[in-house]
Amino acid sequence: MLVVNIHEAKTNLSSLLKKIEQTEEKVLICRNGKPVAELVPHKCKDRLQPHSTMSKIKINYDPTEPLAEDEWTGETI
Question: Is the pTM value of this prediction over 0.70?
Answer without folding.
Answer: no
